[in-house]
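Entry type: protein chain
Record version: 2
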Amino acid sequence: MKIRNWYTIGIVLLCSAWSILVAQKPGPYGHLEILPDEQEAYVQLANMRVSQETGAPLALYKVDYPLRPDTPRNMAWQYLRENSEQLKLKDDLSDLQFSSLRETPGGYHVRFQQYLNGYPVYQGNLVVNINRQNRVTLVMNSYKPLARLDRAAPAISLSQADGIARDYLQIKGRLNFEKQETVVYYQNRQTRLVHKISLVPAEHLIADWEILVDAMTGEIIKVADRSVYTPTTGRGRVFDPDPLTRAGAFYQAGGQFGDNGDNDTDSLVAQIVWRDLLDIEFYNNLYHLEGPYAFIQDFEGPFNGLFSRPDSIWNFTRSPNAFEAANVYYHIDRSMRYINDTLNFNLMPFQYTTGVQVDPHGLNGDDNSHYISSTGQIAWGEGGVDDSEDEDVILHELGHGIHDWITNGNLSQVTGLSEGCGDYWAVSYNRSRGFWLPSQPQYNWVFQWDGHNEFWSGRITNYSATYPGGLTGVIHTDGQIWASTLMQIWDDIGRTACDENFLEALSMLNGGSNQEDAAQAFIEADVALHGGANLVPIEYWFTQRGYQVTIPLIGPVAPADFSAYSDFNTPTSIHLIWEDPVYLANGDTLLPGDFQILLQRDGALIDTLPAGIEDYTDTGLNDGQFYEYAIYAKLNSNGMQSPLVHSSWIAGGSPVPMAPQAVAIANLVSQIKFNWHNPAANIDGTAMDDFAGVYLYRNDELFATFSRSSADTARLDSAIVSSPG
């Protein structure tokens, strides 16, 4: 049967709810914003979030307050009258006005606005949420009980305030929207009459501007861009990791794989690849290589510009300077995302709040590059092969920044430590790409494209000198001992574990740390992050390279396959199961009499068990409440502990059912028939015992309700409704 195409049908469970979380990023106009601290200090008390300033509840949860059946609006007024003292409202509610009513499948949401001397109070509103059983479930309260106005007549007109706002922003061109309104602004026990100016420019400073101007003095007290920004992804052509590595070629002076004065060759262009340039900014009608992790700037000569684009595509070969800008942005952004999002180290420059500030053409074009500790910025020179064309040079300099930021400004060059760190960070990425085999010399090279040519010899990570006898006093040479040792460990334990240990170890050091200090910190890092699972190869390579290190006591590996479960049959308990460890972190056998198992619920210890039990029932819980569990093993002899393993569950199982399946629609001329398969379980896979029915939606609006009972769980179902229109 053909379905009429002027509407769409959706079918959902009566007790289901969906929400969407949209990742957002800061807007491009932070330098113009004036944002007073409007967060009200509070304490959490039972089912309330209470203002420390006024004692009024800012939020009430699980209210379950019964109301006399009436219209939703009248029921909400009833609740406010009967609870005005608790909410810190006026007894007669004379300063509140009904604002809006919204009906949803779950009930009614009634909003009220506070007024003072006839003016709306900025962000002074309440929401009373009522379910379909006529009970208040949740209340949000932003009423300002301490707001007082000494003067109610503004000294500055709305048009004057509008002019003040425009002058501040230097608005140019036409507007898409503008509005002026006088409101009462309360903050930190101070009440002001202000003019709220809303401006949405169409050509310049395109944003949703809200400016609050004091109606008595003309002072601007708040400027905010209220736009909700979503990330922009650009595209750019880059070397990844570098042309010689991708081609598997040696440098050819004067040939196809040579620099040739920064000129293109067919072979070099063939190694350029397209990559996404994530989270770049768009403002003033241009796309800019500015993101949360990388930020192109032009702070050093030769001052070639920022290479912003009218479109989001950086389509360049290596000769134009814009190529290096996209190349640097891509590699800095990717490496910083890897640190923060993959390895979960919260690491950013401490000298500023943007992404890593970088100049792809700096040092007046000299054949050098540098990280600047004072400013936290990085710049690359252009002599020989442009440094910012080589991922190794880009990440080497970033390695210095990582060292500086993770030690809060205590980068150390004692025994060439930071030079070795930069070399390691560059080669760790290059080697992870898998282009070179261990049998090839380039497997151990640093600066694959920029070095090992007629300009300079580059560096290596199979440097044979040992510590400390092989130190020369030249930091770039001595750093190769540290980088070479780490890459030997890298080959044995893998990139992720080695990079994690590297970052964790650096965070333990200071400005006087040497390579041996870093080696001991690396060992401590493996114990902290991996329970010492990698200490055998780590100790071997550090000892082989001359570092005098001490291996700490070894703990057990973590319990395995830890899981929690509860359903409607056990609404006040959760059953936990796991497998006891049988090895220490170094691989030695662990016997049952050697350790205990400890269990935590929501961060607190709930029981200590002997080995061999491998299951536990936690009782006395609240039906429908979410619980987080952790388990670990602890040695009886020395107290060494395994890493924690986590699991979580809802007592009684999830209250949210799965969606109906196999939905089908048939047109019966004047009626429509719907067929579907009712769910048998909740979204966590637990059996469902409280199936109540389904909602039918048309064009996202509730169209019909079909009541059902538990007996209808998991069965084929159908319903017939009149055809609309």
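Comment: Confidence is low (pLDDT under 50) at residues 1-26.
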